[in-house]
Design brief:
The protein is mainly alpha-helical and 278 residues long. It is built from 14 helices and two strands. A two-stranded antiparallel ribbon has the order 1-2. It is globular, with a radius of gyration of 18 Å. The structure holds geranylgeranyl diphosphate (GRG). Geranylgeranyl diphosphate binds next to helix 3, helix 7, helix 8 and helix 9.
Length: 278
């Protein structure tokens, strides 16, 4: 985020606050590691990873707003609208969303415009109506925001979560295949791995909401139960949800088998997702 004078200082500061103050950077990590399977130069995968992280951070800023989840704490610090104000937080989210596509479209991301276009399309689809934003809408509807609360079964919850949380994580893995001009079979393996990691990530998040320590997690816990929210954990119970989680980790490892030892770090990442405490 360059500090040109023409840019409104408060907006730039809020964007920096939302992106650079902590966070695991797990999505960019997935881009860099999946791209490294194909020998993609790190400068390129970091660009695509930065674009993805901008989308992720925008989503957190907007998700924390009073009109959505109304949270005061994120990454152990005041949320962006608490640190600044709601109007600034909305604009910070908007500007991060558009900055993501600016970054993904730059020649430094990939010299071939067709590859950049493929990246931009995949990122747009993961973020929008059929991806994260659509999943967020389904989530709000399930809470009864727009009428009666929907009674979600396991398949509904899995679909919602695949959109809301899974789509960006899946894009992280797919981006590596796009940048690396992977063969169809390799692309499919990474796409499937991303979907599994997305599902595992959300189950781990739901478990943290039930069992996590707010000081370590960096945000309030117990919110899902308080809102009577349907999650994999609320439907299956803690023990069966944990079994499902570790089944997904095993499947993630099998999915990466075609890459052999080169995929060791990605396999470890799947285990990290299941075991994370924050
Ligand atoms: C506002 C369009 C719009 C979408 C919001 C991502 C999202 C959709 C809502 C966040 C709600 C939530 C807590 C989802 C669970 C999974 C998740 C995205 C957790 C946060 O991601 P981490 O743990 O965060 O990677 P850090 O802070 O490490 O970057």
């Amino acid at each position: 985020l360059p500090g040109e004078r023409v840019r409104p200082k408060r907006l730039l500061e809020s964007m920096r606050y939302a992106t650079l103050g902590g966070g695991k950077r797990f999505r960019p990590f997935l881009v860099v590691e999946s791209a490294s399977l194909f020998g993609v130069p790190r400068e390129r995968s970091l660009m695509a990873g930065a674009a993805l992280e901008c989308i992720h951070c925008y989503s957190l800023v907007h998700d924390d707003l009073p009109a959505m989840d109304n949270d005061d704490l994120r990454r152990g610090r005041p949320t962006t609208h608490k640190k600044f104000d709601q109007a600034t937080a909305i604009l910070a989210g908007d500007s991060l969303l558009t900055l993501a596509f600016d970054i993904a479209s730059r020649v430094e991301t990939h010299p071939d415009p067709a590859i950049r276009a493929a990246l931009v399309i995949a990122l747009a689809r993961a973020s929008g109506l059929g991806g994260m934003a659509g999943g967020q809408m389904l989530d709000l509807a399930a809470e009864g925001r727009f009428g009666d609360a929907a009674r979600l079964g396991l398949a509904d919850v899995e679909e919602l979560q695949a959109m809301k949380t899974g789509a960006l994580l899946r894009f992280g893995c797919l981006a590596g295949a796009i940048l690396g001009e992977a063969k169809e079979g390799e692309r499919q393996a990474l796409d499937r791995f991303g979907a599994i990691v997305g599902e595992a990530f959300q189950i781990a998040d739901d478990l943290l909401d039930v069992e996590g320590d707010p000081a370590t997690v960096g945000k309030a816990t117990g919110k899902d139960a308080g809102a009577h929210k349907a999650t994999t954990v609320s439907i299956l119970g803690v023990e069966r949800a944990k079994q499902k989680l570790f089944g997904l980790v095993a499947e993630a490892e099998t999915t990466l088998a075609p890459f052999g030892a080169r995929a060791g770090i990605l396999k470890a990442a799947a285990r990290f997702v299941a075991e994370r405490r924050a």
